[in-house]
Amino acid sequence: MRSRARDIAALALRRLVFAVPVLCVVAVGVFLLGAASPFDPIHQYYGVQIFSASAEEIAQAREALGLNDSLIVQFGRWAGGLLSGDLGVSRSFRQPVAQVIGERLPWTLLLVVVGLVLAVLIALVLGVLAAWRQGGWLDRCVTAIGHALEGIPPFVLALVAIAVFSLSLGWFPVAGLTDAGAEATLGQVASHLALPALVLAVSQTPWLVLHVRQSLLTALSEDHVTGARARGLAEHVVVLRHALPTALLPFVTLIGARVPELVTGAVLVEEVFSWPGVASAVVRAALAVDFPLLVVLSLLATAAVLIGSLLADVAAAVLDPRVAVDG
Amino acid sequence: MVDQWRRVGRARTGTPRLVWGAVTLAVLVLGAVFLPWLGELDESLIHYESVRLAPSLEHPFGTDAGGRDLLLRAFAGLRVSLLVAVLCAVISTVLGVLIGGLSGAVGGWPDRLMMRFVDTLNSVPHLLLGIVIVALYRGNLTAVVASIALTHWTTVARIVRAEVLSLRERPFIDAAISGGASRWRILHRHLVPAVVPQAAMSAVLLLPHAVWHETALSFLGLGLPPHMASIGNILAESRAAVMTGAWWVVAFPSLVLIATTLAVSGLASVWRDRLVPRRRSELAL
Predict the structure, then answer these.
(1) What is the dihedral of CA B15, B20, B26, B29, to 10 degrees?
(2) What residues of B are in contact with residue A305 (Cβ under 8 Å)?
(3) Is the per-residue pLDDT at B279 higher than 50?
(4) Interface touch B280/A174, C-beta < 8 Å
(5) Is 60 exceeded by the pLDDT of residue B48?
(6) What pTM did the predictor assign?
(7) What is d(CA A307, CA B53) in angstroms, rounded to the nearest whole number?
(8) Which CB contacts under 8 angstroms, 24+ apart, belong to A119-122?
(9) Contact partners, residue B103, CB within 8 Å, separation at least 6
(10) Which residues of B fall within a CB distance of 8 Å from A153?
């Protein structure tokens, strides 16, 4: 057993080492995209004042900013800054990038974690009930709604949720983190969090719920479940203790693999609900061609995806002794 | 290899889904082609006398903040979305078939390197990468198409590569080689025809994805310019209208969008069930 634990640690380490070249390639790729962009960084530096600056001043600024250096020198300077913790300054927020992320990342994590937990809970309850009574009315509803929801973009869900729950019923506030000017107290944040987290959860649920249903159906027809039934065990023991654990192993991997969609969902949901997280900062940075912030946010999202799949693989290896860890 | 096509034509699985999908899609496409033309929609005109009218006989979908008929606008938007999606799906498929096919046919270290690159590209969330590309080359159709095509070819490349790898081991390829067929002949007589059904199917599966992607970008204000309004642009404009209680401004364009993506992915799933009978369909969105 000890060697198994060591193998899993080695797997995690190997994956972390593999993450380094991936992040480097992404950084170089985004930098090259930026370098080939028709947007001149000098315009970003000056903003509207470029019209009142003389050609000489612009040339000086260009020299001072190092824009005349070769691409490799510029990349080296930028990557060196990144490695030494200097992430640059965001123009659209007029703050250092590190500060923007420090202020906004916790809110995104809160939204995404609450949304993911809700999605997993909904998926488990509905998926188990649907598979348990396969072909029943609940099963047919869950399957139909699941397939339909897959075709509905999160921002449409968000707009509908605002129209119904905020404007018609008045249950939840429309947008933001708190009421205008209010302190970020627990009650304030919780009431503002409810609707965006629910929309994010519902937009992620279809894949999860259909997957739980499908793999539980497979598990219910396996020999050990028939054996448990033959021994006369209670139905809930058979489903929850014998069938569900084997059905959930691939589910863990699926959750890890859905981090990219979770990031996408967070971008759209945060934007509609004016949630002050890093995902809505992506949109603001993109509209302002805020390159330093865009790069760091891309790297952050990539790291999140890699960590998600690493955690899922480690969890699968810990939970299931049959999973090979040497690959 | 032609019997792959015949199998799809003869199989009977999913016929109701096929009929529903085909009818819905036909109605939507006909609407997108003919409605804006018949209704003589002029997006640049603002009608002050008919701002935000609720649905009525004259305006079945109501009107928007500029007093324009939403039925016409939604279908004009659908036309733009579909054109962009078809363009993206074709480009991604061609890229994917070329790269995946070459990678699988060459094998060895170029293949391993290419697959590592595909893995890397897939670890950046696609919408985010799309946003970065559109932000840096903003303001036109090319940027949007490039941002979608460049993030979606990887799926096709993976499928085609796997197909080529499995084909290489088949006896009929061995037979062709021992029969003295040239590399070129094996490629265009044996490999390409065998890969085409898979590639065509992944192109169709990419369509709803591309529509979705374009709509999301336009909704965020990073997509198509306002003079070629897609459904995403219309929905972005309607955010303010929702706050005043004009539900139809969101409801009808969204319904057109959702019906389109569901119809296309329903058709694609029937096709996939018939082509690969073992696998149950899961809508790929």
Answers:
(1) -130
(2) 123-125
(3) no
(4) no
(5) yes
(6) 0.82
(7) 50
(8) A119/A200, A119/A201, A119/A202, A119/A204, A119/A205, A119/A208, A120/A208, A120/A255, A122/A201, A122/A202, A122/A205, A122/A208, A122/A209
(9) B110, B111, B114, B115, B157, B161
(10) 212, 215-216, 219, 257
**Mean pLDDT in residue range B79-91:** 89
Tokens 């032609």 label which residue? B2
Cβ of A267 within 8 Å of Cβ of B221? The answer is no
**Token output for A230:** 């033959």
What is the Cα–Cα distance from B253 to B258, expressed in whole angstroms? Answer: 9
Residue type at A268 in one-letter notation? L
Please answer whether residues A257 and A312 qualify as being in contact, where contact means their C-beta atoms are separated by less than 8 angstroms. Answer: yes
One-letter-per-residue 3-state SS of B191-215: HHHHHHHHHHHHHHHHHHHHHHHHH
Count the Cβ atoms, other than its own, within 10 Å of residue A206.
Answer: 24
Nearest CA in chain A to B223: A287
Contact (Cβ atoms closer than 8 angstroms) between residue B222 and residue B135: yes
Q: How many CA atoms lie within 13 A of A108 on its CB side?
A: 25
What are the phi and psi torsion angles at B225 (to 5°)?
-65, 155
Q: Does B57 touch chain A (CB under 8 A)?
A: no
Is 70 exceeded by the pLDDT of residue B76?
yes
Question: For residues B37, B40, B41 and B47, what is the CA-based torsion angle, rounded to 10 degrees?
Answer: -170
Q: Do A162 and B242 touch (CB under 8 A)?
A: yes
Q: Which has more pLDDT, B161 or A320?
A: B161
B2 has pLDDT over 70: no
A261-314 residue pLDDT tens: 888 888 888 888 888 888 888 888 888 777 888 888 888 889 888 888 888 888
Look at B136 and A22 and tell me if their CB atoms are within 8 Å: no
